[in-house]
């Protein structure tokens, strides 16, 4: 488990991770992509090292606003062990979401349903700007996870699930919505995995010739 030291003021003092990937095209897929090089032999690298990283990622994806992020970090400072435990729950939600999205895993779907029910149980319907929406009764350390449970469930129950593809790089593992006109996108990003694989293929062709 990650040390609870990386929780509170990290978002503002520079120790929280920044520059998260947004190639997924859906916040649920961006969550799955918080594991770098997921298909590597060593299992890749978790970008959510501490609760502050969860808050920073949620802020980057506009899941929480600036005031909510500050409040969450303050709460994490007051209860570092609770924040560390919540980090584990967010990671668990991410991995069960990966299994449900990529392999249609039934047990993972059942776990996600339970997570969704928990999220709804902590929320109420409010009317704002002419529309009804779910809102947490009280902001707490679990709020990011509850909002993510909504996001993942929306993707799983939408037609967009059929547009989900995984980067064809042998170690990358990032997933994305292929909304290209011909549905022929193979790389998560042309300037990273695309370039790397083009260079690799060019090198092999030169060696063979």
CATH homolog superfamily: Jann2411-like domain
Radius of gyration of CA atoms, rounded to a whole number: 19 Å
Q: First CA to last CA: what distance?
A: 50 Å
Question: Under the CATH scheme, which architecture would be assigned?
Answer: Orthogonal Bundle
Strand content: 5-15%
Query: In one word, what is the shape?
Result: globular
Largest sheet: 2 strands, antiparallel
**Rounded average pLDDT:** 87
Number of strands: 6
Order of helices and strands: HHEEHHHHEEHEEH
Q: Which strand order spans the largest sheet, edge to edge or round the barrel? A: 1-2
User: Structural class, please?
Assistant: mainly alpha
What is the CATH first-level class name?
A: Mainly Alpha
List keywords for this structure.
209 residues; mainly alpha; Jann2411-like fold; two-stranded antiparallel ribbon; 11% strand; globular; disordered N terminus
